[in-house]
Specification:
The protein is α+β, with helices and mostly antiparallel strands. The protein folds into two domains: about 190 residues, no CATH class; about 60 residues, no CATH class. About 40% of the residues lie in helices and about 10% in strands. The chain is built from 13 helices and six strands. A six-stranded antiparallel β-sheet has the order 2-3-1-4-6-5. α4 crosses α7. The longest helix is centred in the middle third of the chain and has 12 residues. The radius of gyration is 19 Å and the shape is globular.
Length: about 270
């Protein structure tokens, strides 16, 4: 399948799709060994090189990816939530028990411990971070996520998420089309989410809505750092449920892309 929007825009990076499966795909790139690094390096390879990639439950190495791809909350207990909230806020400066937090850092490699010491600073304080973690959408299904180019989608496959990778003009066009059938003013969401959560569980939740919105990301620099070797920094991801993608493709036929005004930007 091809995206008509992508073809008209002559996108450098046509959309890719996220699929859930209980079976590890053949002839796909995935983590080597039992554990994987950040999944966004695999997503970026699918976007830039059009290679099919995958990631499984057994490859989880960080606190966010489990919820990101619908494999539970990723938090075993309250202590795990507190540790993650400390890291996502100000590190040791926001730890409810500084001594206990620092003791855990002693068992990490130096580069990781330094990152956890200073915190990722996605949230301004521990309480906000903890609330954010507890309010994430939680699903629990499938053993693997598979990423492939939309053009490689097979008959009968229904994606959980369609992911555009867009520059500012392409984002403007998609925003225009996405807003063209709505009468409100909040048409794209930017949840405080990791890169994998934006294209995953936050998009999954939108699929349950009668009026789904696309998700703009990634807004976390940890995820972006794993993508920048394949995709330049001036690109964003815009993910959406399958049904919304099909709607935008249909609306495209009578959209701004059929105007003389758009031709000035080609």
């Amino acid at each position: 399948m091809q995206s008509k929007i992508s073809e008209i825009l002559e996108m450098q990076f046509p959309p890719i799709v996220l699929l859930k499966s209980d079976t590890k795909p053949e002839d796909a790139i995935g983590p080597k060994g039992e554990k994987g690094s950040c999944v966004m390096s695999f997503v970026a390879q699918t976007i830039a090189k059009r290679k099919t990639t995958y990631f499984g439950r057994e490859h989880i190495t960080c606190g966010g990816i489990a919820s990101g791809f619908g494999w539970g909350s990723g938090m075993a207990n309250d202590a795990a939530i507190d540790f993650q909230a400390t890291f996502l806020s100000l590190g040791v400066d926001s730890a409810p028990n500084r001594e206990e937090y620092e003791q855990r850092l002693e068992h990490m490699p130096k580069n990781s411990s330094e990152m956890f010491r200073h915190g990722e600073r996605i949230y301004c304080d521990f309480e906000t971070a903890k609330s954010g973690i507890q309010s994430r959408p939680v699903y629990d299904e499938g053993q693997y996520v598979i990423f492939k180019g939309l053009e490689n989608l097979e008959e009968g496959e229904i994606p959980k998420s369609v992911i555009f990778t867009v520059n500012p003009i392409e984002l403007t066009v998609l925003t225009q089309i996405n807003s063209s059938f709505r009468d409100n003013h909040a048409c794209i969401l930017t949840p405080q989410a990791s890169a994998c959560q934006a294209i995953g569980n936050f998009t999954f939740r939108e699929a349950e809505s009668d009026d789904p919105n696309p998700i703009l990301g990634p807004i976390d620099f940890a995820g972006r750092s794993k993508m920048k070797h394949f995709i330049s920094n001036d690109y964003m991801n815009l993910s959406m449920p399958w049904e919304l993608f099909l709607k935008l493709e249909e609306l495209n036929e009578n959209s701004v892309l059929q105007t003389d005004l758009w031709k000035k930007f080609k």
